[in-house]
From TrEMBL:
Gene3D superfamilies, alphabetized: P-loop containing nucleotide triphosphate hydrolases
Recorded coiled-coil stretches: none
Name by which UniProt lists this protein: DNA polymerase III subunit delta
Organism, as annotated: Castellaniella ginsengisoli
Top-rank taxon, per record: Bacteria
SUPFAM superfamilies per UniProt: P-loop containing nucleoside triphosphate hydrolases (SSF52540)
Length: 339
């Protein structure tokens, strides 16, 4: 898919959104859960606003403006994102100093770099678009600087903020934006789209991604199994018994934020199984999940769910990753022991 194109399920809402471009709001908060395509929507929206010959309101993909967008050098488009995001996109080289990790925040310097741009004339008198994503990565200083700009927005300028967690943004910043929530498509449409992208086991992939097709595609292209090996090990040890040592070793090779998120999804499946309902994320393992859920103590399961929620807030900066994985393996296995 080209960066000037909307995803198939986004085209109809995009046309409705862009229909009133003559009375367009100066700032939009485009948000939705991970994997729904808010970043793709914002970039395609920017392309449509800059397109010189739009078709039914959407970018044509062929005019000079669209070619500039595709080449990444349109003079009226600025993409503001963390350095870590730019590295993932291949737009920024990894720092030569291995000790210096690319920033995960949008910094004040990036917001200030827009100021001279606001004082230049737009190309052919059209729009100027500033695209910020993910917007929740704005640090506090950068967010306040952006807020001051939005209080007195430059002429002919549209700000598109794409976010997965809008609740992490400054409330005053959110209040300066029109909100545009995005939804994921239905399961049948998502599975058909994933098949068209060449994804194997699209239904299982989609379920593991919580119904978010872009997240399912990302995981498939990264070569991730539908169910991670460490989760399979957890189910094995939960069913047959184990002290958690092997599980702790497996978790050490995984980013804490990833395994915490994975366990939270599995915990929902176990909770559903405890009430006789089918799993949401891992239907292929439904029989094993149901057998474990039937025998466990619901109170222990609930306490462990609360513990996982606490770890979610700390997972990006664990004080001692090895100690955390050792404790997690033993505690979570104990939580699913038969009553």
């Amino acid at each position: 898919m080209s960066m000037t194109d909307f995803l198939p399920w986004q085209q109809a809402p995009a046309r409705r959104w862009l229909a009133a471009r003559e009375r367009f709001a100066h700032a939009w908060l485009i948000h939705g859960r991970p994997g729904c395509g808010q970043m793709d929507f914002a970039l395609a929206g920017a392309s449509s606003l800059l397109c010189e010959t739009p078709r039914e309101g959407l970018a044509c993909g062929q005019c000079q403006a669209c070619r500039w967008v595709l080449a990444g050098n349109h003079p009226d488009l600025r993409r503001i994102r963390p350095d870590a995001q730019a590295v993932r996109e291949g737009a920024l080289d990894v720092a030569e100093d291995a000790k210096k990790q690319p920033s995960r925040e949008i910094r004040i310097e990036q917001i200030r770099s827009l100021l001279p741009w606001f004082n230049t004339a737009t190309h052919r008198g059209g729009w100027r678009v500033a695209l910020l994503y993910p917007a929740e990565s704005l640090n506090a200083i950068a967010a306040n600087a952006l807020l001051k700009i939005l209080e007195e927005p430059p002429e002919h300028t549209v700000f598109l903020l794409a976010a997965q967690a809008p609740d992490r943004l400054l409330p005053t910043l959110v209040s300066r934006c029109r909100r545009l929530p995005l939804t994921v498509p239905g399961a049948a449409e998502s599975v058909a789209w994933l098949q068209a992208q060449g994804v194997q086991e699209p239904a299982a992939r989609l379920a593991a991604a919580g119904g978010a097709p872009l997240l399912a595609l990302e995981q498939a292209r990264a070569g991730q199994p539908v169910m991670p090996d460490w989760m399979m090990l957890f189910l094995d040890q939960a069913a047959a018994g184990g002290d958690g040592a092997a599980l702790a070793d497996a978790l050490q090779a995984v980013d804490p934020a990833d395994w915490v998120d994975g366990f939270q999804r599995l915990w929902l499946d176990l909770s559903l199984g405890a009430h006789g309902l089918p799993p949401r994320y891992h239907p292929a393992e439904g029989a094993r999940i149901a057998a474990i859920a039937k025998a466990l103590d619901p109170a222990a399961l609930a306490h462990a769910a609360g513990w996982l929620q606490q770890q979610r807030r700390l997972a990006r900066h664990p004080l001692n990753p090895k100690l955390l994985t050792d404790h997690a393996a033993r505690y979570l296995l104990q939580a699913v022991r038969p009553r």
